[in-house]
Design a protein that fits this description.
There is one protein chain. This protein has 2 domains: about 180 residues, Vaccinia Virus protein VP39 (Rossmann fold), CATH 3.40.50.150; about 60 residues, N-terminal domain of TfIIb. It has 7 helices and 11 strands. It has a 7-stranded mixed β-sheet, with helices on both faces. A 4-stranded antiparallel β-sheet has the order 6-7-8-9, covered by helices on one side. Strand 2, helix 4 and strand 3 form a beta-alpha-beta unit. Helix 2 crosses helix 3 and helix 5 packs across helix 7. It is globular. The relative contact order is 0.16.
Length: about 250
């Protein structure tokens, strides 16, 4: 079963509790601190339905979005058109992608990078980023931590019911592999009042900071900073999400 097929069409509905404006404000601050002004070009990896992509476009950046899900990109394109914005979206795998031009920065937030599930694949992402970056460019991304998957999501079941849709999410974390599996059953209401069921499996991985550092080194990039999310503090055992800033 593919990730983000049926769920793609209700994704933004269930993400309405995510403080995207605060996330974008923090990311925008990191970009400015790292000399990525609004005259720069950016690529958004794992852009999904393009919420943050459109926010950065409104800040003035020349930005393009990359995602593996055609369904998510279809929604991103529709919302971009409705917002009267012009953004190029490309359906590519972040482990092996090409750009029409090199960019000053890459960004990837909302734990898109956790969908990379092996150290080798993580290194491949960094290599592709390096190939697409201008010299001196940066890659800013977030990762959920092992602590978040193991101790917070754990082996729990989550469910939510809305007027037009509902979902059941069974979560499983494997401590040996550090892989987290989401089994999703999504129910979307049809015009005749019946519901259509979609089933999806999502896999994410919890990388340690040492594993990230090793992959960065192998790819030929450097780590400039690592922060506990939405702060400028160093990570600690209670960190649920980290922000990494890499440089070429």
């Amino acid at each position: 079963m593919e990730a983000y097929t049926g769920f793609a069409y209700v994704y933004d509905e269930y993400m309405d509790n995510i403080p995207y404006e605060e996330w974008e404000k923090y990311l925008y601050g990191l970009l400015k601190e790292n000399n990525i002004g609004t005259d720069c070009t950016i690529a958004d990896l794992g852009c999904g339905t393009g919420t943050v992509t459109r926010m950065l476009d409104k800040e003035g950046y020349d930005i393009l979005g990359i995602d593996l899900s055609e369904d998510m990109l279809s929604i991103a394109s529709e919302k971009t058109y409705e917002a009267e914005q012009q953004i190029i979206y490309s359906c590519q795998d972040m482990r092996d992608f090409t750009l029409p031009y090199t960019v000053d920065a890459f960004v990837s937030i909302g734990d898109s990078m956790n969908y990379i599930t092996t150290n080798d694949d993580l290194c491949d992402v960094f290599k592709s980023v390096k190939n697409g970056l201008e010299d001196g460019g940066v890659f800013i991304f977030d990762l959920k931590t092992v602590h978040f998957f193991r101790d917070i999501l754990a082996d729990n079941t989550y469910a939510e019911n809305r007027e037009e849709s509902a979902f059941i999410w069974d979560n499983y974390y494997d401590d040996e592999s550090a892989n987290n599996e989401y089994e999703l059953a999504v129910f979307v209401k049809n015009e005749d009042g019946t519901f259509e069921r979609f089933e999806e499996q999502h896999y994410q991985h919890g990388f340690t900071e040492d594993e990230v550092r090793e992959a960065v080194k192998k790819a030929g990039l450097k780590i400039r900073n690592v922060y506990d999310a939405f702060t400028h503090n160093p990570p600690d055992a209670a960190s649920e999400r980290l922000y990494y800033i890499l440089e070429k």
